[in-house]
Specification:
alpha+beta; 6-stranded antiparallel β-sheet; 13 helices
């Protein structure tokens, strides 16, 4: 069945028709409207009259729909193939990442934009059963958020501290995440601690808060692509966020592979993509290095290309590397792979990294070696020096449970300072016990001193 999906650019309260996705069976192509004279929606999709290839279309637009089990469940419900994404764009993407919205008609979007009170039990239920609740909220709000962790987009009224459900094309302000405590205990506190440490190391990180529930905390992160402008519009008496456009490094770099394959050099790829996509070439190239170095230091192997984005300015005239997001110590969970999404060694392992590996990586990435190594070393020192403060800050937010994993995480970090020869995975290194999976959050807290 042939489908036509209209692409619109949100210009804050108004919508400009950008182009059309024409889908047939399991493939689709995109073309700009002949009358469109606005900015390109991707560095890989320059404005022109010819349709883009199926591959270029898929790389950009498939990144705007959910990943993981949520994607599979919705495609099954829609009786669509696992590789399809246009049915999800049609049904879900009134609010994805970036500054675009979609429709199946040429009617200008905007009807039904509203904010409604969130059922008080929703956050508790999200913490208890993340996947089904996330799918339910996505279906109700037409929000779609990429990534594997169960998460939903919500609106937070800063005046009343009320959580609201965005409806129609109403933008959200926060991404609220629930961890899978049965598989990855303390996952949310793990990410919160890494974000707090990044903030103390002066890396750009958006505001976040931990929301307590009986089933464990949720992580609410303010969206960097949804700021409140000066003189904002109102919807249902609530200030309307502005949609800033963004694209991740898979979209901007033109690849489907978010994790570094054997023989590739994704640090070079990421640095090059950020450098050529932003007017501040060197500053944004170095930001990619900072994020890669920080992931290495805290044990984050999930630092793939989709976890670094380019954020467009309000006028869409330039881009810069977006604030750090989706970072946590994956090495404390023994069942996960130890290969980094953007690595520092040919083996891609986070263990066994030597000084010469890092030197070779930054040189091959086209960064000035002396400056890059000095910055890497400074960040390593800063992270180790600030770690205890980060732990105390999370405890001070009312979550002393973070101390259950902080010691394991810090012992891992001590393997990675510069001089930074880190040994191969130590046989005696503790990883978080997964036998706790059958316990409730409070039982784990009481039984695991």
């Amino acid at each position: 069945m042939n489908e036509r999906i209209h692409v619109w650019r949100d210009t804050y309260g108004a919508y400009e028709h950008v182009g059309l996705i024409e889908a047939a069976e399991d493939h689709a192509t995109f073309r700009y409207d002949r009358s469109y004279n606005g900015p390109a929606i991707s560095v890989r999709l320059p404005v022109g009259v010819k349709p883009f290839s199926e591959r270029d279309t898929e790389i950009f637009f498939s990144a705007l729909v959910p990943e993981g089990q949520t994607r599979i469940d919705f495609l099954d419900a829609l009786r669509a193939g696992r590789s399809e994404y246009s049915p999800l764009l049609e049904r879900l993407n009134d609010e994805s990442s970036g500054g675009l919205v979609f429709s199946v008609t040429e009617t200008i979007p905007g009807d039904g934009r509203a904010y409604t009170p969130l059922d008080p039990n929703t956050l508790e239920m999200l913490a208890q059963t993340p996947e089904p609740v996330a799918m339910d909220v996505v279906g109700k709000t037409r929000l779609s958020l990429a990534g594997a962790m169960a998460k939903v987009g919500l609106y937070r009224d800063d005046m009343t501290n009320e959580w609201l459900l965005p409806k129609g094309t109403a933008p959200s302000t926060h991404i609220v995440k629930a961890g899978n405590n049965e598989v990855f205990p303390y996952e949310i506190l793990n990410e919160a601690l890494c974000l707090e440490l990044a903030r103390l190391c002066d890396l750009p990180v958006e505001e976040f808060e931990l929301v307590g529930t009986d089933a464990g905390p949720l992580l609410a992160v303010r969206r960097f692509d949804r700021p409140i402008p000066e003189g904002p519009l109102l919807t249902d008496g609530h200030v309307l966020p502005m949609r800033l456009h963004q694209e991740d490094l898979c979209q901007a770099g033109g690849t489907k592979l978010k994790y570094e394959p054997t023989g590739a050099n994704y640090l070079r790829f990421a640095v090059s993509t950020a450098s050529r996509s932003c007017k501040n070439h060197f500053g944004n190239a170095m930001m990619v290095l900072y994020y890669t170095a920080f992931s290495y230091l805290v044990g984050n192997c999930d630092n793939h290309l989709k976890n670094i984005s380019l954020l467009y300015g309000a006028d869409w005239a330039d881009r810069e590397v977006a604030p750090l997001y989706d970072v946590l110590d994956t090495t404390i969970y023994g069942r996960l792979k130890d290969t980094m999404g953007i690595s520092l060694t040919p083996s891609r392992s986070i263990f066994g990294v030597r000084s010469e590996d890092v030197e070779s990586s930054v040189t091959e990435a086209g960064l000035p070696t002396d400056i890059a190594l000095q910055e890497f070393s400074s960040l390593a020192d800063e992270a180790l020096n600030k770690f205890d403060e980060a732990v105390n800050n999370v405890v001070g937010r009312g979550f002393p449970e973070v101390e259950r994993i902080a010691g394991i995480m810090k012992r891992g970090m001590r393997l990675c300072p510069l001089g930074f020869d880190s040994p191969r995975r130590p046989r005696t290194r503790k990883s978080l016990p997964l036998g706790e999976a059958s316990l409730t959050w409070s039982q784990r807290w009481e039984s695991n001193p």
